[in-house]
Write a structure and sequence with these properties.
The complex is a heterodimer of chains A (114) and B (113). By secondary structure, chain A is mainly beta. Chain A is 0% helix and 49% strand. Chain B is mostly beta strands and 113 residues long. Chain B is built from no helices and 9 strands. The chains are: A mainly beta (114), B mainly beta (113).
Chain lengths: 114, 113
């Protein structure tokens, strides 16, 4: 099925460990982004990409890295996990600015850092 | 980013219409009004968007005030599956940071059987 696929769905990390959250879309969307959602809060933008080879920081980028080597994939790397990064992470994609349609979101990765 | 204001929560009865309001008094001419909803334990889901005219789709209707400073998402017959947090978001298509969606806390809609 077309859409945004996130893996893994759940992950427990120890403080200081690193890991990569995977995000892939098959809709040929130019824009991709990562959000985090803490309990009772709205989503906050971590990083985004307007196309392959182009990334930029969002509202809360510290502690995270991204790269965009292909149109389809936009992995999020946690460099050294901290308990403050315990959250639900959502990847989203959209067509370019000339098409003001909606974003498609993945089903999320629930991350716990202990 | 232009800001939106929504009530924290609303309640409705099943099979009745629901009108979810959103104020966006600082909206610019190139801002589209987007609505998303997030069901429990799921990612946000696109509902509808519009610029100036009222819009209808299979999920909902969007009524936009003539001065565009407010809008209302209308669910014509609420079902238990419509219980979710509804987000009203402005998306700028005039250049700059229009790829960003800035989420507020949204409106928690409770649907009573």
């Amino acid at each position: 099925n077309a859409g945004v696929t996130q893996t893994p769905k759940f992950q427990v990390l120890k403080t200081g460990q690193s890991m990569t959250l995977q995000c892939a879309q098959d809709m040929n969307h130019e824009y991709m982004s990562w959000y985090r959602q803490d309990p009772g809060m709205g989503l906050r933008l971590i990083h985004y990409s307007v196309g392959a080879g182009i990334t930029d920081q969002g509202e809360v980028p510290n502690g995270y890295n991204v790269s965009r080597s292909t149109t389809e994939d936009f992995p999020l790397r946690l460099l050294s996990a901290a308990p403050s990064q315990t959250s639900v992470y959502f990847c989203a994609s959209s067509f370019a600015r000339q098409a003001p349609g909606g974003y498609t979101f993945g089903s999320g990765t629930r991350l716990t850092v202990v | 980013d232009a800001k939106t204001t929504q009530p924290n929560s609303m309640e409705s009865n099943e099979e009745e219409p629901v009108h979810l309001p959103c104020n966006h008094s600082t909206i610019s001419g190139t801002d589209y009004i987007h609505w998303y909803r997030q069901l429990p334990s799921q990612g946000p889901e696109y509902v509808i968007h519009g610029l100036t005219s009222n819009v209808n789709n299979r999920m909902a209707s969007l009524a936009i005030a003539e001065d565009r400073k407010s809008s209302t998402l209308i669910l014509h017959r609420a079902t238990l599956r419509d219980a979710a947090v509804y987000y009203c978001i402005l998306r700028d298509t005039g250049g700059g940071s229009n790829y960003k969606l800035t989420f507020g806390k949204g409106t928690l809609l409770t649907v009573n059987p």
